[in-house]
Amino acid sequence: MQLTQHDRFGSARPLVAPNHPTAVYVHVPFCRARCAYCDFATTAGLEHLIPAYVAAVCREIEAAGARWGRLRVPTLYIGGGTPSLVPPADLEQLLDALRAAFRLADDAEVTLEANPGTLAPPYLAHLRDLGVNRLSLGVQSAHAGELQMLGRIHTWAQAVEAVSAACAAGFDNLSLDLIYGLPRQALQRWEETLRAALALAPQHLSLYALTVETGTPLAGRIARGTLPPPDDDLAADMVELAEALLAEAGYFHYEISNWARSDQRLADRGWQIPPDILSETVSPFVCRHNLVYWRNAPYLGFGAGAASWFGGERWVNVDHPQTYIDRIATGASPVAETEHIPRPLEMGETMMMGLRLAEGVSDARFRARFGASLEAVCAKALGQLSRRGLLSWDGRAARLTAQGRLLGNQVFAHFLPPLDR
Amino acid sequence: MDKENIRNFCIIAHIDHGKSTLADRLLELTGTISERDMTTQVLDSMDLERERGVTIKASAVRMEYQAADGQTYVLNLIDTPGHVDFSYEVSRALAACEGAVLVVDASQGIEAQTLANLYLALEADLDIVPVVNKIDMPLARADEVSMELADLLGGGLDDVLLVSAKAGTNAQAVLEAVVQRVPPPAGDASAPLRALIFDSHYDSYKGVVAYVRVVDGEVLKGRALHLMATDVRTEPVEIGTFSPAMHPTGRLGVGEVGYIATGLKSVQECRVGDTLTYATGPAVDLLPGYRPVKPMVFAGIYPTEAEDYNALRDALEKLRLNDASLVFEPETSQALQFGFRCGFLGLFHMEIVQERLEREYDLDLIATAPSVAYQVVTTQGDLLEVSSPADLPDPEGIAEILEPWMEVQVFTPSDYIGPIMELMTRRRAEVGATEYLDPQRIILHYRMPLAEMIIDLHDRLKSATRGYASLDYTFEGYRPGKLLKLDILVNKDPVDALALIVHRDKVYEKGAALVEKMREVIPRQQFAVPIQAAIGGRIIARATVKALRKDVLSKCYGGDVTRKRKLLERQKAGKRRMKQFGEVVIPQDAFLAVLKLEE
Is the pTM of this model over 0.80? Predict the structure, then answer.
């Protein structure tokens, strides 16, 4: 197989140096049932394709390994969809292929997303054996009615069970996903979910505001009036409640929607943290893989719908698993679209992603990457946003303020085209 | 061509009753245009017209027809604009004809415009050929509508032609009726030249092309011409007929219809209704009916981006080349900076101009709410014409404000008298006579201020009557009114472009409704934004756009970057189409909020 797209552009720009660490993502687009709010590249009822799909992904991985030489991979993330639907033998094949194509570090962070309704103890043991050391569980809500509205296939009891089974299997880095801002969800309901999740003492929490994506069953119900639209003001209250509760419980708010458990007393430190999140003094549980995205560092994605950012280009594979399998089988490139990212846009994206982090965008790192200071590139935006109280800029790093965290889009837009005349 | 064998006629109809389709059939039948070359509705040449299904620009086509009597006739079909905003243009087109084909939809029946145009045609002394069209439609009630038409015209049922222009049924009979029933043109071939201008267009090679009907004498190429009303002299470049493309003949005889390429550079010099004569040996009297253009509705048009000001001016100038009714002059607004005060024949005309500016010239515009032209008598005794509320003097300086009133006829099935009365009287209408056309159909006469009409009266009337009622209006005169200026303050600052002139009895109601509507259309921003309505510094209503609390993409990982970035870029581009006032952005909708108030 040839990845011709990359060959075509590869010579025009220097590729990332072979020794530069590159994160790897593998997409598993299968689910037992589609959730009511989901517009991801996922399918339900196509699980019979899993073996052929995994074989195809392995071929894509092999080709990439051959193309770039065994890149050093510090983090691997298997997401979906529902990766926990993939049988152990297929997962093993996948990890073997990855280890053959890349230099997967011994201390690599290896995350697998799992639906709590799909995790049995023997499976968890297999995952440990295969080197998976972090689980991300989409538990979403502690409330039965909400889980039903969202179209989740599991109960809260199953979520609790999955967490204790994972711990019993030896997992010591668990992340739970929760969702808020649901139609009819009262602040108190959200607090109940938060407290129930905290009672499980996960190492990491991701809290997502419900986004009603067009074309989803949920959007249909809201359009028909059988569900009220989410209330953004209430969602803002929910964020503030979560920030307070989680700080109190010792979680470090390191990204707009992400918290990592810390042994330190963080309540009074809030969002202000050392310049590098990865310093272990903050928390060992910050998701190192996702940090690669937010720092706008390179990654390769494999599988249907997976995105890559590498050598100045972003490309994304075809969405449908069958199309993906067919493309690989015929030796065609699975890439659906490639986007060349010119420097100014890369700067904008670096701001859009980096400002999501508590560490913000540091001038030192920006300068090292682009050869120009933050001040030189975006003095106007920094000034305006500081005056509006959305951004703090002390000459060394730009960071969102508490209000800026809630109004992030207003901030990010300033750094993106169409640039202010 | 002997004038005994000339027939000049037009087709008059309510919108959508099938005028253009019938015209197409006649062109086909006379071989003027082959079926193959026929893009449907040839006469409506602008895209916009075709999309809206109405005719904006009149045209004239010469057809040759071999009639049943064995003789060949020249039939000049003069198209008329189909909207009430253009009633003066309609009257001039009618004045160029001796007959009119009156088309009525077999399922819709007679409507206000049918009547308004019919009355204009009768006033112009035209002979009428009544046609009931769309007789093949499922809901057609051809017999009933024929009776109504026969009653209306006082003729026999046999005179009414039953036609399906779409299918071509009986279209030939229309041509025969035109030959037999429409008289040949009168006029004196030996009198000094008098030619009526009933339309014009601008041609970049030939200059202004006047559409004319020779009333007396003949036009020959090579002699200088004089436009009597505008007192302009010109050497014609070309003379000819429309077939339907311009076909030079060098001559137009008495009674004939065609064009004169005047070589003039501006349609303002070549007014519809003016009379063309020779510069030497001229006629003494103008043809009757000339009226200078009088815009009725005014609005400010501003570029969203200040740097597009010159592009907007160029575009307006280009539009004016072909639109003698469009007037504009530079205007400055504190809020919107530099733009133009534009005058239009009516709201429909305004919409068309705005749409053409945006579509054909790719401009992003902000239009202010439409206003009428007020006459202000100052305490010094001066008379000012004020077409922009922002220009109204301070209350202390005003002795009296006069506003334009209109005579309005509403044509409706009698079932809807109640809702129509309610609608009209709420808008300060004076109720006039009720005329029964038959037991089911009536004409209601009103007099009302134009200011009450320009804001969606037509739509309201349609919705109050399930689309059955239609209306027509003419200018009555200026009358004094108890009028006040209503200021709108955004974030405590008055925005001049949002000011309105409102009747005293309605000022509280309007102020409250307006600030509420503005609250809905102004997007939430980082800070709460108060919206206030005030009269002379006194706040009478207020609403608050709540602060935006949360606007952030919750999930943003590797696979999301492109999509989320584009989402933000789109939002940002959308915001650029709004106007920034200090800390607050105001979208176009806010300027037109007054058009969208519930009643």
Answer: no
